[in-house]
Amino acid sequence: MPPDAARRSDRSRRAILVAALELVEALGYSKLTIEAVAARAGVGKQTIYRWWPSKGPLLFDALVELGPVGHDSPPSGDLAADLKRELRLAVGELAERRFDQVCRVLVHESRTDLVTLLLMPRRMVVEDRLRSAQRLGDVRPDVDVSAAAELLLGSLYQRWLLRTAPLTEDFTDAVVDLVLRALSDRP
């Protein structure tokens, strides 16, 4: 019986994606080459070029398929603690060299799919937490939940992108506390 080409393709694709992320973390984006990815994955360059035109789209797919995106823990009942956890997880992702290297390039290339596929899952978790808090009366009913999520996460992404100051847990906690004071009827 001949080898299953689909299984071989899936195995090769995964090996390429893993190799790309490992190498971008070790070398950085500027030193990463398709040749190095091919060698590490044990495939020919032509196999990579058959699926991706360049290293940017390859790394984007690698992050989408293998990267740290989203968070599934159930709400704890403490909105501030839940939001602080989400923002800390976002900071942790931004601190990962592979995520940082690839996302900076994708932002530079104005890849709108970066926002949709990599950043939107965390935003949806934050919006869900805020909507739940709104139903419980912990967030004012007139608050635009989407705008509030942007306030929370946008400050992190701006600080990360511009490198104006370090991203720390103290910063994320201060952002959550400040935004929650603005969203609540309580002092």
TrEMBL record:
Domain HTH tetR-type: 10-70
PANTHER family assigned: HTH-TYPE TRANSCRIPTIONAL REGULATOR RUTR, TETR-FAMILY TRANSCRIPTIONAL REGULATOR
A Pfam family annotated for this UniProt entry: TetR_C_11
Species assigned in the record: Saccharothrix hoggarensis
Residue ranges: DNA binding: 33-52
Keywords: DNA-binding, Transcription, Transcription regulation
InterPro entries named among the record's database cross-references: Homeodomain-like_sf, HTH-type_TetR-like_transc_reg, HTH_TetR, Tet_transcr_reg_TetR-rel_C_sf, TetR_C
Protein name listed in UniProt: TetR/AcrR family transcriptional regulator
